[in-house]
Give the backbone structure.
Amino acid sequence: MTTSSSLQQHRLSNGFRIVTEHMPGLASATIGVWVGAGARHEATTQNGIAHFLEHMAFKGTKRRSALQIAEAIEDVGGYINAYTSREVTAYYARVLENDVPLALDVIADILLNPVFEEAEIEIERGVILQEIGQALDTPDDVIFDWLQETAYPDQPMGRTILGPTERVSSFSKADLSKFVGQHYGPEQMILSAAGSIDHDALVKMAEGLFGHMTPTPAFDAAPSKFIGGEVRQTKSLEQAHFALAFESPGYRADDIYVAQIYASALGGGMSSRLFQEVREKRGLCYTIFAQAGAHADTGMTTIYAGTSAEQLGELAEITVDEMKRAASDMSPAEVARARAQMKAGLLMGLESSSNRAERLARLIQIWDRIPPLAETVSMIDDVTTGDVRDFAEKIVSKAPAALALYGPVGGGPTLDQIQGRRVA
């Protein structure tokens, strides 16, 4: 099925999906496989295994050693990498156009033929434990894990992507193989490519590499419910780290663009309300921002700032006051600016083949189609000032909330105090 002159899709008989976009003028391409298996697809005893598996993909196959995997791509000047999120694991490479077949062969090899040698498992276990330790030593990283866990307690959506050290310390070859068998079926995979790409040739290669795969039973991830609450970790640090989250729409919700425009106007840039009021006018922090994140069935609007212990209470009060004020006086100019920033970010991102390949994969995962760019831009343009004010009112007065504090926060505000100011 072709949706434009350069955008094409195909589905193999076993459910494996392929989407490509040819970008004229490029001599390179980004190609990858996005797998619908992330942290939220793990059982409690598996927490961290999706990320562990991503690491192990580069540690050797039946055809290539770890060094040969790296050399295969880097010998032609290419780049290969992977990442794990709560809903997907992606394996991708960027290469020159003549090396696309090589890149696809390497990616297929690491997905379909991993050997999970015991010695390599132990080496990578040590690497991941170091990664966990590094995250724990980075306050503005770990606070978001705590915030997520507080927002979604005792749920897959609330668990960390890296997993706890006790789980990571015990994963075996059998555990890795079991997760692959459960979640790495052809229907869970999307081959996405953008740049100097020949769609028909790629489909033919994909048929040869992935066409033999047997469909696996669908896995329904447990639904997520934003509960909220408070977590406070007192530690002797230079700064008090403050993160506040509110339930907001998932990416299939009608008001997802309203949520994103609201977050942008509230704290998305130097002209935003929080940046101007908290940093520029009062000098209470160096960093403050708001963002709207979304998943299949839930989302979070998050505000983060770092400040001194003495100014934490004032910062929290002003943040809530600005949220309340946005519900009554968010201006058309602010909404227009946020819309422009969102459209510019989208369109500028599309100049990168890597961003395009990822966007195509995510849209196929969400909608099983690629909405025309004009449709997306139109939905952004359709967001009105009234829509944003209504959303701001819902967020500040009704939405469940989660609070995470880290550092010298013993005298910091409680969630109850913040809730009281929300309704005052």
Remarks:
- The longest strand covers residues 240-248.
- The two ends are 55 Å apart (CA to CA).
- The chain has a mean pLDDT of 95.
- Residues 118-136 form the longest helix (19 residues).
